[in-house]
């Protein structure tokens, strides 16, 4: 378990400079890919998505 924790922390720390040093073209490409993935996932849903702001704030809100 400790190895997993150390791995996750190291991975997050190494990801920060990679994000900061990327060019604008790479950032734009990543945004396009993420928007496409989001659109594909939304098409697969049968009912509309209802976002609950409490879930993102760490309170005890439950997803609908």
Structure overview:
Helix content is 70%, strand content 0%. The protein is mainly alpha-helical. It has a domain of 41 residues. The protein is extended. The two termini are 32 Å apart.
Short description:
With 64 residues, the chain is mainly alpha-helical. Helix content is 70%, strand content 0%. It is extended.
Looking at the structure, what is the overall shape?
A: extended
SSE-based structural type: mainly alpha
Task: Summarize the biggest pleated sheet.
Answer: none
Oligomerization status of the protein chains: single chain
Residue runs with pLDDT of under 50 for 5 or more positions: none
Q: What fraction of residues sit in β-strands?
A: under 5%
Q: What distance separates the N and C termini?
A: 32 Å
Strand/helix succession: HHH
The value of Rg in angstroms is 17 Å
Estimate percent helicity.
Answer: over 70%
Q: What is the overall number of helices?
A: 3
Total strands: the figure is 0
Round the mean pLDDT to the nearest integer and report it.
81
Q: What keywords describe this structure?
A:
64 residues, mainly alpha
Write the layout of secondary structure elements.
Blueprint: H1 2-21, H2 24-44, H3 53-56
